[in-house]
């Protein structure tokens, strides 16, 4: 079923969903099941599976020169989705990125997803690779998520890349996209970022999942700004609990988000006590979740990051 149909069917009730990362290459599906098994009692209608672009390693050759080799550290998104659907009988939402894909590669993955009866895809650009400094698409790949949405929308109307194919089978993908309550790191300002978000919706996306945030007011303001800009699709808040001291600096650096004064002060107060820091983060996330639910968010989307125990503790207090 489509993610947006779940929202409609819920009639204002706040659903719950989870996001998992494919295991590192060499790992097995058990890692995913270990994360999801304890979370199934909360009855998520769908689970997202992230997609990761190749990274580089450097091998030293006999000549002394270094050889740059691309490796896929976390392959397997499509297979994991199929496996989740099979084991739990729920929908799986693969993330699909522009980085590392030509348009043809993208089309082929979408054909696979269609054959697997995967109805939902979160369409993303992907981040710049560590050593590139800025996002570099494949030679015949997409520059922005909106281009990927356009390609999916074309397939939904039976239009494939090969111009010889006329009236191809129409896919029926429900397309989600990312939104940034505190603006995307590369956007010159919030207003321009919002224009580009609107372009993704106008191109055919039908829901938004947000970047994590720790101040609910940022989400409420973001929803208001979207509505004022004519973006009327469901906006799902993405949530991640802060559980470690170093995240006070890593989360703002990696995700371009601000941490509220009260949260920082509460963590600083128990500095050095790992368990107490985790407890502060859990309680903060529970409070955030309860308020978002009370104010009618369509779904709370938890980034699990392999920490099912923490997410479970939070979900138990909220659902
Ligand atoms: P876009 O919407 O393309 O925007 C990227 C930047 O370009 C923004 O600054 C935007 O303002 C600007 N822009 C957009 N369109 C245009 C245009 N036409 N002209 C000029 N500028 C434009 N990354 C992964 O690698 N794998 C994942 O599985 C993954 N999952 C994610 C899930 C969620 C919910 C979120 C919020 C992020 C996720 N990311 C993932 C990270 C995401 O790929 C990065 O944040 C990436 O840098 C931007 O992706 P996007 O889809 O928002 O890009």
CATH architecture: Alpha-Beta Barrel
List the quaternary state of the chains: single chain
Number of strands: 10
* Ligand catalogue: flavin-adenine dinucleotide
Kindly describe this structure.
By secondary structure, this protein is of the alpha/beta class. It has a single domain (3-8, 15-242, 300-318), classed as TIM Barrel, CATH 3.20.20. It is 40% helix and 18% strand. The chain has eleven helices and ten strands. The strands form two sheets. It has an eight-stranded parallel β-barrel, surrounded by six helices. The mean pLDDT is 95. Flavin-adenine dinucleotide is lined by residues 50-53, 95, 97, 124-127, 144-146, 178, 184, 186-187, 193, 196, 200, 209, 211, 238. Residues 50-53, 95, 97, 124-127, 144-146, 178, 184, 186-187, 193, 196, 200, 209, 211, 238 line the site of flavin-adenine dinucleotide.
